[in-house]
Amino acid sequence: MIAPYPHLLAPLDLGFTRLPNRVLMGSMHTGLEDGRRHFPAMAAYFAERARGGVGLMVTGGFAPNIEGWTKPFAGTLATSAAARRHRLVTDAVHAEGGRIALQILHTGRYGYHPLCVAPSRIKSPISPFAPRELSARGIERQIRAFVRCAKLAREAGYDGVEVMGSEGYFINQFLVTHTNQRNDQWGGPYENRMRLPVEIVGRVREAVGADFIIIYRLSMLDLIPDGSSWPEAVMLAKAITQAGATIINTGIGWHEARVPTIATSVPRGAFAWVTKKMRSELRAAGITVPLVTSNRINTPEVAEQLLADGCADMVSLARPLLADADFVAKAQAGRAGDINTCIACNQACLDHVFHNRLATCLVNPRAGHETVLLIRPAPQRRRFAVVGAGPAGLAAATTLAGRGHEVDLYEAADRIGGQFNMAKEIPGKEEFGETLRYFTGRLAATGVRLHLRTKIGAEALLASKVDGVILATGVTPRDPRIPGQDGPNVLSYIDVLLHRKPVGRRVAIVGAGGIGFDVAEFLVTPPGHSPTLNLHEWLAEWGVADPGEVRGGVVRPQPAPPARQVTLLQRKSGRLGKGLGKTTGWIHRASLQMKQVEMIGGVNYERITPEGLLVTYGEKRQDGQLIECDTVVLCAGQLPQRELQAPLQAAGVEVHLIGGAHEAAELDARRAIDQGTRLAARL
Ligand code: FAD
Ligand code: NAP
Ligand code: SF4
Question: Which of 169, 306, 330, 635 allows an S-S link to 516, with CB 3.0 to 4.6 Å?
Answer without folding.
Answer: 635
